[in-house]
Design a protein that fits this description.
The protein is mainly beta and 320 residues long. It is built from six helices and 21 strands. Helix 2 (59-71) crosses helix 3. The chain starts with 8 loop residues before the first strand and ends with a strand.
Length: 320
């Protein structure tokens, strides 16, 4: 039950690049690696411990043998033995497809799984890089469908220029896309259900257009213009600053200019630290692990405290 690091699960994507290697130090050879899954319980993509006495153990095995100690009894009562969130770093060399995710009810009905609520923290952005988040006006289903047929969907979308540190909350139903030149950390429900509605007419390496999910998306989209996505948060040093709190995860921003010690006795949840700048040593009751920019640590729920030794590091701190 020491602080656990896992092997990154690297994903080639049509839109991927090389920043996961060049900026975050991931062990990749490909020129189109778009995602590093840091902590995953998604079937077929189960994370595996990378170091220490539990090296080689999968996340599923750890939950089966020590579920309450790892996840927390409260988390297990609510989510069962499925790991409830998926942690990623994403490098968009090209624009991602225009997409959205269904809510829990629709995902359960159609796919027998959870929906996908997510958040983004921008780690790096080329000058002028943008995200697409929502519509730029209220739209109805007929108008949206007509825009697909006329190839004018992009005219209805809201564009947000971004910079390092910008944070966005993407609730289900919200149409969105990560733009070219953005490197970000993503925290989401454990789900891999995405409805792709427009892909810039790109072809994959085999010359094929990627599948679109036009019909599935129609009843999943929130057609209203809403300004509920940009997250404002404090950046007080050496304390946890609330960023996002939703039924699926809570995320805080933590910047350390000195060593820190926090009690975790009342949490009854695991804690994840995603390092977005600098490096540190993370300790709990059972051991310690180093962490640096682009790495992720899972601190088991049984931890009564966390001590972070660092003179300059930034983290996303994630709990349930």
């Amino acid at each position: 039950m020491y602080p656990l690091k896992f092997k990154p699960i690297l994903k080639e994507r049509l839109w991927g690049g090389t920043k996961l290697k060049e900026v975050l130090g991931k062990p990749i050879e490909s020129e189109i690696t778009g995602e590093s899954w840091e902590l995953s319980g998604v079937e077929g993509n189960i994370s595996e411990v990378s170091e220490g006495p539990l090296k080689g153990k999968s996340l599923v095995e750890l939950i089966e043998s020590n579920g309450n100690e790892l996840l927390g009894s409260r988390v297990m009562e609510h989510f069962g033995s499925d790991f409830p969130i998926l942690i990623k770093f994403i490098d968009a060399k090209q624009d991602l497809s225009i997409q959205l995710h269904p809510n829990d009810a629709l995902a359960q009905k159609r796919h027998n799984c959870f929906g996908k609520t997510e958040m983004w923290y921008v780690m790096d952005a080329d000058p002028g890089a943008k995200l697409i988040v929502g519509f730029n006006k209220d739209v109805n289903k007929a108008e949206y469908t007509a825009s697909l047929e006329a190839d004018t969907l992009l005219d209805l979308l809201n564009y947000e220029e971004v910079a390092k540190g910008d944070t966005f909350f993407i609730n289900t139903g919200k149409i969105h896309a990560i733009g070219a030149g953005v490197l970000l950390a993503e925290i989401q429900q454990t789900s891999d259900i995405t409805y792709r509605v427009f892909d810039f007419n790109r072809k994959d390496k085999h010359g094929n257009l990627r599948e679109l999910h036009t019909d599935l998306a129609l009843d999943a989209i929130d057609y209203k213009k809403k300004d509920d996505f940009k997250v404002s948060y404090a950046t007080h040093s050496n304390e946890s600053n609330a960023m996002v709190e939703c039924p699926y995860f809570k995320t805080n921003f933590l910047e350390l200019t000195q060593n820190a010690h926090f009690s975790l006795e009342k949490n009854d949840s695991f804690t994840i630290y995603m390092c977005v700048q600098g490096s540190a040593i993370v300790r709990n009751d059972f051991g310690e692990t180093s962490i640096s920019k682009g790495e992720t640590i899972l601190l088991p729920a049984v931890s009564s405290f966390v001590e972070i030794v660092s003179q300059g590091a930034r983290f996303l701190e994630v709990t349930i």
